[in-house]
Predict the 3D structure of the following.
Amino acid sequence: MSEQRMGDQSFMKGVFHGDLAEDLIFPFPQVAKEEGENLSMILDSVSRFLDEKVDSAAIDREHSIPESVIEEAKALGLFGLQIPMDHGGIGLSTTAYSRIMQQVGGHDASLAVTLGAHQSIGLKALLLFGTDEQKERFFPTLATGEKVAAFALTEPSAGSDAAGIKTHAKLSEDGTYWVLNGSKIWITNGAIADVFTVFARTSDFEEGTKPRLTAFIVERGEGLTTGSNEAKLGIRGSSTTEVFFDDVRVPAENVIGEVGRGFKVAMGVLNSGRLGLAAGCVGVNKTLIKMALDRVGERRAFGKYLGEFGLIKDKIAGMLARTYALESMTYLTTGLLDAGVPDYSLESAICKVYGSETAWWVVNETLQIAAGTGYMEEYPYERILRDSRINLIFEGTNEILRCFIALSGLAGPGRELSEVSRAMREPIKGFGLLVDYAVKFARNRIAPGRLTRAHPVLSRETVLIEEYTAHLAGHVGNLLRKHGRDIALMQFAQRRVADVAIDLFALSACVSRTTATIESRGEEAAREEIDYTRIFAVEARRRLECNVVGFEANDDEVRKGAAVRSYELGSYPFDIMG
Ligand code: MYA
């Protein structure tokens, strides 16, 4: 691996260059012994609390989480999981935090979202970018849950387009405070939050130019009001409201990070927040798998248990393998973060997309196995299905995240190619660069990235990763050479690039984790892990083949044409009546 790649410190960004920076993903991260013991104890008490006190059907029916449940969650420390101990929190790593979110998410989505909005994103900017003074001031009450946090980014004109924010802040003449005006929508914890991380533009509005955003800590008080709770499809026990700022005075010392660098703060928060969501989805999947297994073991049809039918076995195998892939990629990424790897933005976006889609698929299949029972309100299936739908939307829609995965991955090779093309215009000055590029190009052809640390039992899966990493790098080069900057507008191609990246990361995570299991427990004891990896790899191969073929042969233009013509008509054009 070249030094520049090492410097990137992102496994997936390396993959876009055709590199497999295996030192970043091997060995599969383990929870440190001391934290593991602490985590087991916390998980025991959290599980007891969830089983004994959290009635999800009632929360859904009543559209609220009982005060007693929130109070007990606070008493258990669930509002301060990652806040450092010297500020009154438990000081857990991201891996341990995510494992707890997994447990909560697997039991009750409304509670998970309330806790997640507080600490996955609400107070995260303080944790990542806050000054010692700010932490000192806010953490003690946030850690105990005496105060609740929320993350206020989204606006009517700024959903996926986070840069479209209109809420603005103006510095007072004496420079001691900012005056905040505007509004936010769909703010989780809106009705219960006391402390909001708010993103506002601190540059004048100029059509077509990106604003300078700044992140502020804003306390509930004069000028800050919240709307009533929204009626929602799912996660009904969580609070979602509008938030209004009417000449709210925010002390200058409440700026988080640098003035004008708020977009970086927002993205930093979301990069880490998306992992909590992915972990929640692991929990949802495990709960559903348990429900599906109970069902197929007790329900009989045509003289057999459901579990004896081939099509049911197929569904169960898919659930197991996809959940294994999700769990592996999520905890591989939390491990990277805990190890101090600075850039995990691509990996966390992949976990969010794959987690939300896998949970959506698993809930649908579990409901299908339960058939009529699954559709009835009396049973939990339909509630879990409703609760799971939001995961594909919030913390970045899966569509916008696919574009982000592709474009962020393409940026490195894009920069390299533009440097090379500049060097070609000035071959004498750029000679060294051209030689480097030619050497790398030749090396990638003869010896594409290799995973030498994968266990030989997984050689087929390893070759699949290596082959398709080379394909991805090749197609990325072709796309960039052919379309240049226009690739930013080509979402069909971006989706294929993102889907290849998602499968490569999932497979790499499975291979790393299964290798660790084989090495520690032996091949025989790693039977399930090996089989889950194989099942996932067979599914992934089908998608990879299809996506790679699609780079050259596709019906993208036909689809675009059909869509655009329908926009003019405004409806479906046919009727059998003529
Ligand atoms: S909170 C609201 C969620 N909103 C979003 O997620 C917004 C989505 N939008 C975006 O992410 C961005 O706007 C996109 C960029 C990606 C579209 N990391 O020109 P650009 C850099 C690092 O591409 P844009 C909610 O839902 C980029 O490289 N850097 O920007 C709460 C570039 O840098 P440079 C990044 O076109 C729900 C610069 O920024 C990243 O404007 C409550 C500009 O980039 C990144 N990620 O758009 C949830 N992205 O200039 C509670 C961009 O140096 C959940 N950049 O080249 C709790 C969990 C529940 C558990 C559930 C259990 C069931």
About this structure: The chain has four domains: 3-8+410-564, 33-144, 149-260, 264-399. The CA atoms of residues 564 and 570 lie 10 Å apart. The first strand starts at residue 149 and ends at 152.
